[in-house]
Amino acid sequence: MNFLSIFVAVPLLMLLGLWLVKGQNGIRAVMVAGSTILLIAAAVLTVMFLQERAVNDAEMLFTASFDWIKPLHIKYSVGVDGISVAMLLLSAVIVFTGTFVSWDMNKEYFLWFTLLSAGVFGFFISIDMFTMFMFYEVALIPMYLLIGVWGTGKKEYAAMKLTLMLMGGSAFLMCGIFGIFYGAGGETMNIVDIANQTNGAHAIPVEVQHIWFPLTFAGFGVLGALFPFHTWSPDGHASAPTAVSMLHAGVLMKLGGYGCFRIAMYLMPQGAQDLGWIFLILTGISVVYGAFSACVQTDLKYINAYSSVSHCGLVLFGILMVNQVAATGAVIQMLSHGLTTALFFALIGMIYGRTHTRDIREMSGLMRIMPFLAVCYVIAGLANLGLPGFSGFVAEMTIFVGAFEHADTFHRFLTIAGCTSIVITAVYILRLVGKVLYGTATNEHHLHLTDARWEERFAVICLIFCIAALGTAPLWVSNMIGTGVAPIVDHISSFATNASFNPFF
Amino acid sequence: MFTYTILILLLPFLSFLLLGLFGNKLSHKLAGLIGTFSLGVVFLLSCYTAYEYFVTVGRGASGVYEAFVPYNITWLPLGSLHFDMGILLDPISVIMLIVISTVSFMVHIYSFGYMHGERGFQRYYAFLSLFTMSMLGLVVATNIFQMYLFWELVGVSSYLLIGFYYTQKAAIAASKKAFIVTRFADMFFLIGILIFGYYTGSFSFSFVNELKLADGVAAFIPADASRAMAAGSFILPTALTLMFIGGAGKSAMFPLHIWLPDAMEGPTPVSALIHAATMVVAGVYQVARMFPMWIEYAPQAMSIIVWVGVLTAFYAAAVAMAQSDIKRVLAFSTISQIAFMMVALGVCLPGHETVLDNHAQLGYMAGMFHLFTHAMFKACLFLGAGCIIHAVHSNEMREMGGLRKYMPVTHFTFLFSCLAISGIPPFSGFFSKDEIITACFQYSPVVGWVMTGIAAMTAFYMFRLYYGIFWGTENKEAHAHHTPHEAPWTMTIPLIFLTFITMTCGWIVNFGSFISASGLDYPIHLDTKIAITSTVIAVVSICIATYIYKGEKQPVADKLQAAMPRLHQWAYKRFYLDEVYQYITHRIIFKHISKPIAWFDRHIIDGFFNFLAWGTHELGFQIRGFQSGAIQKYAFIFLLGALILMLIMIL
Prior knowledge:
heterodimer; A: mainly alpha; 2 strands; 3% strand; B: mainly alpha; two-stranded antiparallel sheet; 25 helices; 72% helix; globular
């Protein structure tokens, strides 16, 4: 048994433990112990990875493979590179803090929550397309119940919408995966093997790539909130319980960007080179459109959901630029957005739990009433608008510098359009902060509300610490991610764009 | 060498962390002491750095002060480029260290008195430390990206400090406005940086300075030849102009100045530090930093700087004449004076024999000189205004008048600073302004005369302000109710110190021996004709202001106002520019972009997906009749199908 499987085994053991224990304290003990082990495991893995990386330049490290469904060549293959290590670290942090945020939830909730995290971890360690897809589905299904049962507002509608749209995406994805499998000769599902097949230019015929690339990219793009497939995000986030929003926006949306990069682009490089421009335009729209939409929303969670559309758009924007710097930036943006949005949703949940409203017109002057939460909210806002010292700045700057490597008008135009988002982000963040936190309290019911409890404080501080650490010392993370991005980007850019498919070339 | 300079950045940062994290556990006094003490050390270190840099190390073999880079680490690798963090010491950054640490230290001391007993005292000192750290980081940046990073940080500290009284609506709106307007400008700065980095293959200032050392020999070697061609002709001027837009936003140049007057909602010491002496000159500093690039690659584009500067200087001076809030007058005067510095940098001409030529580029020295002197006297004016506001609890001039009896120290320091800004010898402002006007005359007589005219307006509105506060009609009713008193010593000592600098720094040291375009020693010599002309004009303006505003009754002022009501109203309302912006942001951006996009998202795109779901549901509903479970129905359909099939086969 390869030790990467710990990341799946621990959540499964936690499920068992949750099933056995009784009482709220027992549940808490299992959750805290399990998520702490996961966090430690992720940290240990990072250290081991960095040491191993220094001496071993194989693309995936710590690989292991077991036959699962032999006739179909489906294997349980695991392995990590710089990108997946970063993602595992992110997931561990979010699961850990999510546990503290949902302190008072009951057993069933935690069962689904843990299953969801098992799916997420499994997704990031797999290098077999089918296993990856399976974990992907494992992560999606609990979402339906978590929102439908423990959600707020129009929860049934939102849960249904979210699940159906993401399932629609998976349908595309499934077609795409089998397309790749058979296109590549039908002998292996292993991502690295498919990419490195060298019969001819590339194992998958170009025509086939042109069919399956858009489908696969769109399939993952739904989860990555790609315009116009993003509409599940505002409703879904608004209705989801706090920790689920955190996990969903913080980690699950990253599955989309990760999959687009690792499967759609890496395995079908020619398709990516020829047809990437379509998605590049869509991401450009996402970035600006999401930001503008966020400006006029009145629900805290809607603002944040649209902000996520904008920031996740930047993730896909970065990877579609197909160069080392921009793609590294995109992965940093995944980390940054994951942490920042998780922090935001955690705080929104805490505020909502006290005021019982998320409408910004009904709140004001919270700074005096709950100073700790309000100050953290301001910090989250500043991190979101890309203030230096926080992770967003590092990510955005890396993406923009990378995007500028393309000197043609098309890319230039999109990059400059992307840059405008930093201004619009400032507009909606400051509008929100000014309305909700500053000023004097107008609602007298709010005057007696209490500030954060210790477990809430702990979760929030953990997240802020991670955001600030990534923002002040980005060098090692950037280098680690760079080692993961380099082979993929090299592989994709070794294929030249066929100008007849690209009107902007 | 200079390894201790890291402390100049670290100390305020540590003080920020300490006060920010544990501030509410500390008493007001202790928090203030921590902040002030760390700034005191920074002040001493800056002075020592300057002493060591200019005196101990001195000029190198080629007769210029060499640049030192005691620290430079790669903070973030960006492919072939890299984002470094470090400390660069050269004449302009060392002078800026002095300016920032002096004013900041004075403001720290002053705030002890001014903010006494305020709620959030610790937070105030934490933000002050954050600001000081960011500003110091900005000026010692070794590359344009590091400058941008700290540029954003000063922006946010300014936001936090303007919004210090966060329960007041005006303060919230002002802080938001300041941040968004400067952020909008920063976007252009960022794009400029991206273009610059891509085409020159570096973000570093070192080759900007190499140019200075190499005396016009092409030290500018881009990554490849095609980039070089693009860079030389069109791209580099574009990049520099975009960066200038960023600078114009921070330095409140027309038409991006609208945030600065509103920023006066912050505590007055903050206005003195951030919105008069340091942050708002960041744009000037940025142009000065990129100056070798401007002069070598974009000399034509520099006329943009000149005309933006002239327009701003005139506009702000005109508006300042009609304002009644004393901080607003000072704010517009700041805008006008920064525009003077910008004009000074813009009017530099390409050198005759070498690229960098002290005589042709007198404006470079003059701009930095004015930056230095202006920081001191404007900080003093703002702090003075703070004492006055502290005494009468109002910003409005009509609440004041006749205060000279009550507040002698404030009165005299204010008077001397007014004389300095008006350009009366031997105060420092005279020397620096005179150099600027000389440089303007070299560039074109039109600019020269216009700037002289604006200098006259400056003298006029400053003395209108001075008489309005200390002479004029006394609001006896208000003063009887609450007698104004002199400020405590923590507030007056900074005033005296800054006034002392203002009175002496013009003639004691020769500024040209520290900063000049080529780096070589440049003895300042006053152009007698221009010096006399401008002094006479300034004195005449002051006399007019005295005639109009000194008396108890002001018949002339009232008559003037009555004669031109429209003009006065327009100037008072700042020519309605804020309303124009309000219209653009609220009407156009919110109402005609954001609202339709949000509607489109909810109704068209989401509607489409809802329609899909509804369609599927309806389809299922319609065809579910086929699965009724009734055998007869199945048999019937089966038969029907078989018949149709047979029919098709037969045919």
